Amino acid sequence: MLYTFDESIQYCNSIGGKPVSISSYSERDAISGFTNTTTLQPWIASRRNKTTGNFYNLDGSYFYSYMWTTNEPSVNGDCVTYKGVNPPGQQVTQCYQLQPAFCKQTPALCNSAVLGGPNTWSGTFQSPGYPNQYYNNLRCQYLINSPNNTYITITFYPFLIEEWYDAVEVYEGNSTSYYDFIGTVSSYNLARGFESSRNVMNVLFRTNYAVTDKGWLATWKAKKNMPTIYQYGSNGTMVSPNYPSNYDSYDEQVYQISVAYGMQVNMTIDDFRTETRFDYLSIYNSTLQSNSTLVATLSGASVAPFNYISPRNYMSLKFVSDGSLQYKGWHMYWSIC
To answer: Which residues belong to any copy of the C-type lectin domain (predicted)?
Structure first.
């Protein structure tokens, strides 16, 4: 069957699919493989913005302007077909032309899901078939929702895919738009952890038609939007959230203290009660919080009094609680020395 551009969009939607846009080199190569034996050029879900004159993908993905065939884009229309024979590439076509529709459908092998919810703070999910093997020609989406006033962190480990051709992409909100793109997971570097700015994150896993691998496992957590508490000067007091009432579940509060150059911070905790092991206060000898700057991790009921003097004119703390038991927390005062 042959369709106009708009009819091709309607046809793809009617069979539960989507019209094809080219959003990666692997998709371009796959489309070339499908179309290089036909003289009829299928529609691509891209068209010209008549106001700006620029072309865009209907699904919001990034439009690769260097995937045109020779002497394109021309002024011979506002819609796009794909030329599979040499030289392959996108070609401008009048939108009323009758061309084949080119649709893509998510295979039943996908384990796409809506994850989380208003009362869910963490979870895991994995590629289809993990840990044995994922499949070719997938386009799986995982929409994560977390409680209000939180943001989402996600880590992928293990992570074994066909690099450059298969991809895991992370987006803000319920989107796969270029403008909401957070990052691409990679096994070649440390780009395996990401965070959103709000409480909705979308993960897209797409594979091409060739090599597959074991896949990946993703672990996500919701974190409260709790701005860092800063204190300066010569003395001050810091407390856990809500002190002396019980702190909340899933708190992650960071504290920073900075004093005049050449001085040190002398801090004393005079009251402390948290759930042992699971709710804790970490103390760092720097504003950079890492294992190398960690001084102590305090938890339980037998902590106070606790005293510490920083080696420099700054230090920091981080208080973390989980979702089970809550207590009154802690009280600390500090001064310069």
So the answer is: 1-104
CA angle 288, 201, 140 (to 5 degrees): 125
Q: Express each pLDDT in 241-261 by its tens digit.
A: 999 999 998 999 999 999 999
CB 29 within 8 A of CB 210: no
Task: Give Cα 144 to chain centroid, integer Å.
Answer: 10
For the stretch 98-146, pLDDT in tens is 999 988 876 678 999 999 999 999 999 999 999 999 988 899 999 999 9
CATH, residue 70: 3.10.100.10
Structurally, the chain folds into a number of domains equal to 3
Reported pTM: 0.62
Nearest to 267 by CA among 251, 255, 250: 255
- In angstroms, the CA 73 to CA 75 distance is 7
Residue 295, domain extent: 229-336
Give the integer Cα–Cα distance in Å for 160 and 163.
Answer: 8
First-to-last alpha carbon distance for the chain, in angstroms, is 83
Cα 76 to its chain centre, rounded Å, is: 39
